[in-house]
Amino acid sequence: MEPAAARSLIERLRAGIAALAEDQGHAFRGGVPVAELLARRAQGFDAFLGELWQALAGGRENLALFAVGGYGRGELFPQSDLDVLVLCAQLPDAGDRQAIEAFISAVWDLGLRPGHAVRTAEECTQAAARDITVCTALMEARRIAGGPEAQADLLHAIAPERVWAPHDYAQAKLDELGARHARYGDTSYNLEPNLKEGPGGLRDIHSIAWIAMRATGRRDPAGWIEAGLVRGREWQQLEQAREALARLRYGLHLLAGRAEERLLFDHQPALAQMFGFRDEHRENRAVEQMMQTYYRAALAVRRVLARFTARWHELHAGGVRAAACEALEPGFMAGNGRLSVADERAFLADPAAPLRLFVCWQRHAELKELGAATAAILDQAVLAHGQAIAADAQARQLFLDILRGPRVAETLARMHLHGVLGAYLPAFAQVTGRMQYDLFHAYTVDQHTLNVIRNIDRMAAGEAPEFPQATEVFENIERPELLYLAALFHDIAKGRGGDHSELGAVDAEVFCREHGLDGVDTDLVAWLVRQHLLLSVTAQKADITDPGVIHRFATEVADRQRLDMLYLLTMADIAGTAPGLWNTWKARLVADLHAAARLALRRGLENPIHAGERIAQCRKAALELLAQEGIGTAQAEAVWEDFPPVTFLRYRASLVAWITGQVARARPDALPVVAARGIGGRGAREIFVHSPDVDGLFAAITAALDRLDLDVVEARIMTSERGLSLDTFRVLERTRRDSGSERDGEIVRSLRYALRQRPLRLGPVKRSPSRSQRHFQIAPQIGFQEAPGQDRTSLSLVCSDRPGLLALVAQILREQHVRVHGARIATFGERAEDFFLLSDERNRALDGEMREAVADALRARL
Q1: How confident is residue 737, by pLDDT bands cut at 50, 70 and 90?
Q2: Per the confidence metrics, is the pTM higher than 0.85?
Q3: In 637-669, which positions are buried (b, 16+ CB within 10 angstroms) versus exposed (e)?
Q4: CATH number among 1.10.3210, 3.10.20, 2.160.20, 1.10.10, domain 425-603
């Protein structure tokens, strides 16, 4: 072909490709089904490549051109690779090679990214035998140019009798699928899911189709349905899920302008706007509505995949014949490790049968799956009876039996996977796939709820060492099913607007009455749902060493059973919200508040503990601990003469004893005294600093801790009668290293060095926020309040979390000539909520002018 003619052809085809892209973009935004757009795009490229092939290689009878992979099956997304095969009837000669090179070069000139292979039929056989991915791509080959005999040659080259017999192919694909799921944590509930490769994604639908295609030799779903590999309704569900997932992927490709497969935070809001979603209210934003379509589609795919896999194994094993099954319980049988229904007609006639099935399954831990036929019958029963299941008296009793049985979370998760939990509890169906667009909630509401229930199961079984005294407390719970009910309902009203705790309590109350619970139990469940955040918020945001705080909390709780259940629910809730959110510091806070409230209830709310009594108790307990270290009463009390009285009110006896020992053993010329010790393992530490109290000390310490990769979660700043600091910090390792003496020594040396520098180094380490942190930005919210009974001002700061935040805030406060006397640090995903107790340099509360200056400085820098 002449160069000028070739250039003209390339320019014309480029214009055609651009016109096709523009037309498809308009059609996509106009709501044309994605399946239709994908097919049109593949057909368009067939025409472009066919014309190019005809011009550059059309006279080469030895060669044929095929679309393979996604292009071969007619799924060509805007940024998908263009995979083609040049099939040679025999080894290509020089003319063939020249034509192939010219064609591939021209495809690149069109601005496309061809993935190409040049093979003979025998080479296709060899490559397919070595790599199942090659075999799969060739199974979907579609001829674009070349004689019809080429198609027959290719089909023969990869025929099941030559490579990858159906059983071997299916097993390899299922193994591949399992490994792929494991790479994504075996969950569809990632905040930034991969639409193509993630569990429940498009690749799972492809895997079902590939196995069915290999087993039947047919490319049409009707053939797979006839062969009994999939059922018609299942394939319909897959098609609906495919449309939802493919539409998201198509829009993502258009938006990103590249082959992006992950629904990153960066793209989610724009994609939601593209699809026409609109914010309804703060708890049902457009992006959350869009993501719910993804999560529900992914759940549907995983549901069908589970049934397809079970059916394949049954068919390969010759089916689960009635003769091979043994009676298990009335109405149910077991065979090949699967639970099956004995009488399908009787099962379909009984509205309570779906619940009865899961009660039976719960009692038989050895059964891991439902028989494929039983799963299909279960679908029919749920579809046929609908709301009648939840209205049936026997079904209601069976549901309560499930909550009283073993492995509650496993059973509820199975009910959820098979669509029974949502049918029984329509409110739960509403929060299925309901995500919250932030960095704090790592799971959808339904998955989080199941995580919480799973944590309670672990407490009950004594398999949760990260939850202090959980198993001991659980053993004293009189009605554990009430705790499970509270866990099931605690977030069930998310997304409706309004206070989800109040709305969920109403739902729980109605449920309990309908299920025959008495007024006392109903009130308990509703109270737990309504107040499920009470203990967490109090422990993390209030000063739980303040007797007044303890008394108010204990008054709200009112009795021991409520307190214990709330304690267990709080731990399970925090740990089930996001990986790593539950840590040693939170465990200590929650346990301390639980213990203090339990003591207050035991004393009687009419006899609140007073400050003087608390101080006396602390001193007595600390002296007993010091005596074990060889420090006598006289020596300890000599040290305490320099301690402010509030030390014994705000510090635990064990902490008082520790810092007393550090001061007692230090030489007068050894200042600053710095000590560090691990508390509870998993990178949690307490640090003590005893030093001349100079302005900027807090900022210098926090900056040094930041450089040591330590996150401060609590700080108490006190000054002795002689003007020396008695500062304690609770910190967590960012890298989660275990506590150890070597690390303690490193911290002590680094802090001592930093505190001896003049001038003190106040600035934090400069590190960039993560991509996710940059995406979620919160305007600083700053509030001031007089601290009752003190010459102090309380500062509350809510802002975006970022590396070195505390050290930066400390530096800003120092620059404004403000002293810090205490700090409590809490981080919730991208949101930091910090509290500081402040004074001016004369130890007075901040006046209005200083407050305004501090607020302006914080806003300017944050």
Answers
A1: low
A2: no
A3: eebbeebeeebbebbebebbbbbbbbbbeeeee
A4: 1.10.3210
